[in-house]
Amino acid sequence: MMIALPMNSGIIQAIVLLVVANGAPVLINKVLGKRWACPVDNGLMLRDGHRLFGHSKTWRGIGSAILSTTLIAILSGIGSLTGILFGTLAMSGDLLASFIKRRMACTESSRARGLDTVPESLLPILLLKEPLALSLLDIIIIVALFFLIEELISPVLYQWHIRKRPY
């Protein structure tokens, strides 16, 4: 028995923007390695003995996510401002997840199912629901689909040597 999900163009656009925002830093890291990879936290250690965000959260990655989502937003007719905001909010959610994971003493680039996808997907789609014409049901569908996409695509990207870990 198949369950039909209501798929409007806002859902598809949001999923594409999330995949682009999440994938751009991974791809730019694969292409450039450590070149120009300045950590967002500049190595800042907090009292708990862990970095603020970690070495893998770089300005280059954030910039690539924002630039990529802006380009895709323009090409899809959403507009540059929405693209800039989407990329910025997605990366803010990603930084929030990294901050929480560091406070939980998780090692950098470790997996925290849900925490790795929910903040970076929920923040941009919640705050940009009007420009993307999203309903509450759309938002729930997008977060769930993005979680599933991440779960399914990460092992493939690892096999293709794009990601360093299979999750």
Main features:
167 residues; globular; mainly alpha
Quick structural summary:
The protein has helices at 9-32, 59-75, 80-103, 118-127, 136-159. By secondary structure, it is mainly α.
Describe the structure.
This protein is an all-alpha fold and 167 residues long. It has one domain. It contains five helices and no strands. α1 crosses α3 and α2 runs antiparallel to α3. It is globular, with a radius of gyration of 16 Å. It starts with 8 loop residues before the first helix and ends in an 8-residue tail after the last helix.
Q: Portion of residues in helices?
A: 55-70%
CA radius of gyration is: 16 Å
Low-confidence stretches: none
Task: Tell how many strands the DSSP assignment holds.
Answer: 0
Shape: globular
Number of domains: 1
SSE string: HHHHH
Distance linking N and C termini: 29 Å
- Average pLDDT, all residues: 87
Sheet with most strands: none
SS content category: mainly alpha
Break the fold down into its secondary structure elements and pairings.
Elements: H1 9-32, H2 59-75, H3 80-103, H4 118-127, H5 136-159
Helix pairs in contact: 1-2, 1-3, 1-5, 2-3, 3-4, 4-5
